[in-house]
Amino acid sequence: MMIDPLSVFLLLLGASTPILFAALGELVVERAGVLNLGVEGMMITGALAGFGAAYSTGNPFLGFLVAACAGAAISMLFAALTQVFLANQVASGLALTLFGLGLAAMLGKPFEGVRAPAMPAGPLRINWIVWLGLVMVPLVWWFLNRTRSGLILRAVGENHEAAHALGYNIRLTRLAAIAFGGAMAGVGGAFISIATVLQWTEGMTAGAGWIALAIVVFSNWTAPGVLAGAWLFGGVTVLQLRLQAAGVAVPVQLLSMAPYLATIIVLVAISARQKFSRRAGTGAPGSLGTNFHALR
Amino acid sequence: MIQLVPRQSASNTWQIATPLLAVLATMITGGLLFAIMGHNPVAAIRTIFWDPLFGMASSYSRPQLLVKAAPLILIASGLAIGFRAGIWNIGAEGQYIMGAITGAAVALALYPLEAWWLFPAMVAAGLAGGWAWGMIPALLRNWFGASEILVSLMLVYVAQRIAAWMAFGPMRNPQGMGFPGSRNLQQYPSASNPELIAGTGAHWGVVAAAFAVLATWFLMSRHIRGFHVRAAGTAPRAARFAGVRPAVLVAFCLGLSGALAGAAGLFEVAGPAGQITDRIGVGYGFTAIIVAFLGRLHPVGILLAGLLLALTYIGGELAQLTMGLPAASVQVFQGMLLFFLLGFDLLTRYQIRRRITA
């Protein structure tokens, strides 16, 4: 069996892009102290909205723009619940995922069985959106670690009481972070429908949003870590598809478990390292998953 | 200016009122949604919530209520206990599938043996399969600190692929003309889970669901374990001083909810579904999360919420047939219901006062 390293790397880039976008977005959300489990719901929304726009206008790039807006828009449901109505973040995120999957399945019927418009290849014959994802990694890193806004965002995530006492607007900061996370998840989802599968099918994100959540843990809440995690995941996916194509004597259904099993293994390994490491364990933001209610 | 003041303890009135408000708001918003899609909103809501019980085809659809409610209630009863303790098993769908597979495996291995103990053995295997699948995230959390949310969810996708593999491989019916799917257990008397009283839809799963409601009520209000669960949920640090060991609680909650989900899967595969296919998981495990929340994590509430969501399934099918509403509109309804519930829940935990500004 011949596997050409360069072509495998190109496939890996493509396979990792949806996760990369979604996980970078969720990274910013979690650094602001919010745990949004609705990534899967936002991705599927983006996948449908993006595909619909790309198909209707014939312009795939417009599709990605619409997907970003749709992802951000639906994330505002989660934002309203957790930031205004102070609802439990885990439950609200789950609600967003269940609602998004249902909504996309309902509205997606007219787009079943049609093909996405072709995308012009970018530099080095790599998709423009793949490039965009790669550029987003240093951008997010720079924003979080080298800008004043990033510092405020991290302060809000690390200790919202203290950030509030300093006069920062917790709610506004978190709303902005959630919207960014929604937009990124939307683009990630649209990459699956517009650039990978080239079709719309119900439930096509197939757990990518959940894998993105695991990648954020794997990254120890850093942007370069997210890239490493996304590539690791992409590598496993490509390898698994290659093995399927090569006709290895393992049932297809078992091979296709690989990305999910790999995610569990990676999650366990990184959690164990964070748990048993002698240096101060985890990079998880201090206020992650807790709501803030200002009494004064 | 409006101000939110936290309550000392949750308001009992609002505890009961918010689910009702949420259902009402969902009906209104759902009606609006149907109106936008060009359907008569009143007719659509009536088709979903009224006709299955009292409409023309109700003699067919009424028994379906128990058939659909049983797995939801069975799964949600287990989930609610974990949710109370802040242990998030969101992979009940996977535990349901594994329970169906392990339970059916017993029957398929012994086919065509007829014995009275076969069905009880299948139930035991279903419980064990679901329990084992639930214990994976429990142990990974206890040993390595891995998030039970993500691990249990990932295992849903793994279970779905195991089910597909079983249906196309090891469990495929040797007399099935090459079609995927196992033997049909409905046609295997000792292994089948039939309707116990004609016309009610009640099978052994319904009996088990009723038992689960009673047992979880007893556990939560009369047993020390239930006290530990509630303590860990409201005041984790205080709970430790009271002798609650978190690791034991994690294993207990995930194991119990897994076992109940597994039993639900077994009752389904031996009864209404009949065979292992790659579509054995139909989303009960996820809908049960909504049932648990809508029922306020209380056994009686879960009973009522399970019946209501079962109604939306049946009503949704009916609306699909008679009005051409998309099948996924039920899912949208269920998601909306959870949204509204979580939103209105503000009223149970906070008082709304007008701020007097100087």
Which key features would you list for this structure?
heterodimer; A: 296 residues; mainly alpha; 0% strand; globular; B: 358 residues; two-stranded antiparallel sheet; 15 helices; 2 strands
Descriptive report:
In chain A, helix 2 packs across helix 8 (170-196). Chain A has a domain at 5-208. Helices cover 71% and strands 0% of the residues of chain A. Chain A is an all-alpha fold and 296 residues long. Chain A is built from 12 helices and no strands. The model of chain A has no long low-confidence stretch (mean pLDDT 89). Chain B has a domain at 79-282. A two-stranded antiparallel ribbon of chain B has the order 1-2. In chain B, helix 1 (12-36) packs across helix 2 (41-49) and helix 13 packs antiparallel against helix 14. The model of chain B has no long low-confidence stretch (mean pLDDT 88).
Please tell me how large the radius of gyration of chain B is.
21 Å
Which chains share the greatest interface?
A-B, 47 and 49 residues
Q: Report helical residue fraction of chain B.
A: 55-70%
Number of helices of chain A: 12
Unreliable stretches of chain A (pLDDT < 50, length at least 5) are none
Shape of chain B: globular
Please list the strands of the largest sheet of chain B in the order they lie side by side: 1-2
Provide the residue-averaged pLDDT of chain B: 88
Structural class of chain B: mainly alpha
Determine the N-to-C terminus distance of chain B: 11 Å
Strand content of chain A: under 5%
Which regions of chain B have little confidence, pLDDT < 50, spanning 5+ residues? none
Distance between the termini of chain A: 67 Å
Approximate strand percentage of chain B: under 5%
- Count of DSSP E strands of chain B? 2
Structure annotation, total helices of chain B? 15
Number of strands of chain A: 0
The helix/strand series of chain A, from N terminus to C terminus, equals HHHHHHHHHHHH
